[in-house]
Write a structure and sequence with these properties.
It contains 22 helices and 20 strands. With 626 residues, it is α/β, with parallel strands linked by helices. Helix content is 42%, strand content 15%. The structure holds pyridoxal-5'-phosphate.
Length: 626
């Protein structure tokens, strides 16, 4: 896995230069330099770095692919795209996205009232807004208000009840109006074909969403009856996220294309758009055999354009405008989570840690002999003996025959023997050895919360690329599992023999070591949970000026302790008063000590939940930096 699979998942966004991983843009700064500069400004704990140029790159790629396909096929319909807000609603993301997408007339997709408000306030007038998901009267009324502001908005109905509401709201808004304005209407169709993969539930006949053919015909009749058929503009489907294979999309396109053509021929003359939803996959794999996507964006665009053209031609209708709502594809690459390693757990297993006595139990003496005399020729045999002795020694401890020091010596010696044996036998690659690697894997305690920053790993087992930010000129040798700082045993990315991660053997008392978690810009932020009250990490937007120099902008610090509690509706005024009084009334403190303790308490309350440092030496480095 050269350079942690960067050539598989990196899409040329990052490069290894010397011993660091660098942004492949502008002056190509290293991620470690950016991280250190932010930390020097006093921000500690994990950092989320956003790169607007990577958002722009994804949009350029998407629009270029469709432009090329339309030109190649002489396609007459237009191409439009919207960003589905559920993928990332964070203001630093949305505002930046709207800035970089300006040349494209890129719009937003909303699936709830709050998202609709973001769309109404952030989409430039004229760029498309689409509204999906279940809607009540208020949400539909908001869409009418957006239309009256001049927005190009399409409300996609998910069922006939919503259409009835649209008809009622239309009465209310337009009956006495000088200039009646109604949003465009879209219909989400229930596909008989379905997606694949872990997100496949959005498509298919048992899907939560969409109208059956019978309901479609009924909707058509209703729209005619109420004089709204001219508002029917769009057919919509969404087959699910992270499509690994393009075949289900092609099936869905044929289905949707034929529905479009039939409704149009029947008399829906304003119908002119197919919205193919999202689902474009992102390559998260760090190992070749785990690759998640079997198509290119060019192939995807060609398939969409070709199939729509073919159906339109055969049925004798105009080629529809094409809309996409891909979110993961646009957002994933823009964000990198950087988190410091706080501790390595088996570092105590060094020969230095041995507490051998003048007279050791015989089995320990034997373990020590095995450790000092193990060689390639006897490695397997000695290894088995060592494991055997360990079992016996642990039993002796349980029975009270040996003490805690003996037990500690056992742990250390067996660990050292396993390590030596693996080194000696590494070219044999037997299953037994691989199993032993699990046993000596190094646990890296990392200052982040998996629940907050990688919830899809916790919920779905979604893998995200992980690599250290420096030391890349050295071969990493420790089979690594990553522990977060929550008190939850699920907060672990375990070592997996099929997709092994090796990290460097570092001494955190001597030097800092940062891990980057890549492709975390889609879904992770808002799905993140405040488990143990760890909050969204400190974030920063990294831009580049014309000369290629980077700038750190729009830093938003992670919430402080009292803000977190306030979010849970604690009365923080009461908490504040109570803590203060308890210090003031404490008989264990002198008046000066009370002052000092209060000062410390307030300092801590103003900071976030993430850990500062564990090792004393880091403490020194941090204060050196101010
Ligand atoms: C979630 C969703 C999307 C975005 O899907 P991605 O896989 O992120 O591209 C698009 N459209 C609808 C209707 C959705 O629900």
């Amino acid at each position: 896995m050269k350079h942690f699979g960067l050539s598989i998942w990196g899409d040329d966004n990052f490069i290894v230069q010397g011993d660091t991983v660098n942004v492949n843009y502008g002056d190509k700064p290293s991620l470690i330099a950016i991280t250190e500069e932010i930390r020097q400004r006093g921000y500690k704990g994990p950092l989320l770095l956003r790169f607007p140029h990577l958002m722009k790159k994804q949009l350029d790629t998407l629009f270029r692919a469709f432009s090329k396909a339309r030109k190649e096929f002489g396609y007459k319909g237009d191409f439009h795209a919207v960003f589905p807000l559920k993928v990332n609603q964070f203001p630093n993301f949305v505002q930046t996205l709207m800035e970089v997408s300006e040349p494209y007339g890129y719009g937003l997709e909303a699936g709830s009232k709050a998202e609709l408000i973001v769309a109404m306030s952030h989409t430039p007038v004229g760029a498309p807004i689409t509204v999906n998901g279940f809607k009540d009267k208020e949400m539909i009324s908001l869409a009418f208000i957006a239309a009256k502001m001049g927005h190009n908005i399409t409300v996609t109905i998910e069922g006939l009840g919503e259409l009835e509401t649209i008809i009622a709201v239309n009465e209310e808004f337009n009956a006495d109006s000088h200039t009646p304005v109604t949003p465009h209407i879209g219909v989400r169709i229930r596909l008989h074909s379905s997606g694949i993969g872990i997100w496949a539930k959005s498509g298919g006949y048992s899907s939560k969403f969409g109208l059956t053919s019978t309901e479609l015909l009924e909707a058509y009749e209703m729209l005619k009856r109420y004089g709204l058929i001219e508002k029917l503009r769009m057919i919509h489907f969404h087959i699910g996220s992270q499509m690994s294979d393009i075949a289900p999309l092609k099936k869905a396109l044929r289905e949707a294309g034929n529905i479009y053509a039939d409704l149009k021929k029947r008399g829906a003359s304003s119908l002119g758009a197919i919205n193919i939803g999202g689902g474009l996959a992102v390559e998260y794999a760090q190992h070749g055999h785990m690759q998640e996507r079997n198509y290119s964006l060019g192939e995807f665009a060609n398939d969409v354009v070709f199939l729509m053209q073919e159906i339109a031609k055969r049925k004798g209708v105009d080629e529809p405008d094409i809309y996409t709502e891909s979110g993961r594809f646009v957002a994933a690459s823009h964000a990198v989570l950087v988190a410091p390693v706080l501790e390595l757990f088996s570092q105590e297993y060094t020969a230095k840690g041995l507490r051998l006595k003048k007279n050791n139990p015989p089995l320990i003496e034997e373990l020590y002999d095995l450790y000092t005399s193990i060689k390639r020729a006897n490695a397997r045999e000695y290894l088995h003996d060592a494991l055997d002795h360990m079992e016996s020694l642990l039993t002796l401890f349980d029975l009270g025959y040996i003490d805690l020091e003996d037990r500690s010596n056992t742990e250390i010696l067996v660990n050292l023997i396993i390590k030596k044996a693996i080194g000696l036998l590494k070219n044999e690659g037997t299953d037994e050895l691989k199993k032993l690697q699990d046993r000596i894997q190094e646990k890296y305690l990392v200052n982040f919360s998996l629940f907050q920053s990688l919830p899809d790993f916790w919920g779905l087992g979604q893998h995200f690329p992980i690599m250290p930010l420096d030391r890349l000129d050295e071969k990493p040798t420790n089979p690594a599992s990553i522990w977060d700082i929550t008190c939850d045993s699920d907060g672990e990315i375990g070592f997996d023999r099929n997709t092994p991660l090796y990290l460097h053997d570092i001494d955190v008392t001597e030097e800092e070591y940062f891990l980057g978690f890549f492709l975390t810009g889609a879904y992770q932020e808002v799905l993140g949970m405040k488990h143990n009250l760890f909050t969204h990490p400190t974030e920063a937007v990294i831009t580049f000026d014309e000369s290629g120099a980077y700038r750190i902008e729009r830093i938003i610090e992670a919430q402080n302790l009292l803000d977190v509690l306030e979010d849970l509706e604690y009365d923080t005024g009461y908490i504040d008063k109570r803590l203060k009084r308890r210090i003031e009334e404490s008989s264990l403190l002198t008046p000066e000590e009370k002052q000092e303790t209060l000062g410390k308490l307030y300092l801590y309350l103003s900071e976030n939940s993430y850990l500062k440092t564990i090792q004393a030496i880091n403490e020194r480095t941090e204060t050196d930096k101010g």
